[in-house]
Amino acid sequence: MSGWGIADIPDQTGRTIIVTGANSGLGAVTARALAEAGAQVIMACRNEVKARSVADSIGKNVQVRRLDLADLASVREFADSVETADVLINNAGLMAVPLKRTADGFEMQIGTNHLGHFALTGLLLDKVSDRIVTLSSGMHAMGKIDLADLNWEHRRYQRWLAYGQSKLANLMFAYELQRRLTAAGSSKLSLAAHPGYAATELQGKTESFQDYFLAVGNRVLAQSAEMGALPSLFAATAAEVRPGGFYGPTGLRGLRGNPGPSGSTAASRDEVTARRLWELSEQLTKVSYAFPRR
Is 134 helix (H, G, I), strand (E, B) or coil? Predict the structure, then answer.
């Protein structure tokens, strides 16, 4: 497993895979690799112009559809357009942006990274036959779920703590989804992945002096987007994944290298908070999951 790479992706012919945020970075690499492996890839992107440019460079096996995770109306419209899929990869995300609000009034990072994907997955759950892969981050370790103020309406906004909260929420969601699928007797898999420290456009959106230092880090420390995409590709396609597994780079303390199982914090395994976060997410998004009965 330690040497697993793009060449090891099993044949994906006949499979349909949705990749959110596929217009750049990890998402674009993921879409390209899956299309080259034979999958029909739906690139679900807010920036359609940029996405179509990427799709044109890939060639066959890809289509672009609009999805703005910061707008629940767009999430519902996209979900309605999907007939069926084998895999959903919840890849899109924002990192350390200034305080902004989504169309529905959520803090932008928790709204896009978690609540948008929570709603999307719930609306597509009956249509996805095999796996849901949700991208988290090693920075989930700095996150804390504040159920009383999830959207930073009463606290002083701190962009990096908001990012950590959203990435912890992603991971807790993936774990809780697997617990609920298992309890319902479903064979579907919920998996999580993280890219380690990968050079992508994600690091250039803080709109502050921090962008300069993040750019230097990309050049000096980060691995390529091609390597950073491997954990999500592994989670989406490898036969040896385990239900509820979390996958990331296996070298340099999880920052770089080929994919394998990754550890996570005790907070990410807190089932009580995960259930409460799930209930709050259903209330905020007005999306309730329907799990099959045994």
Answer: strand
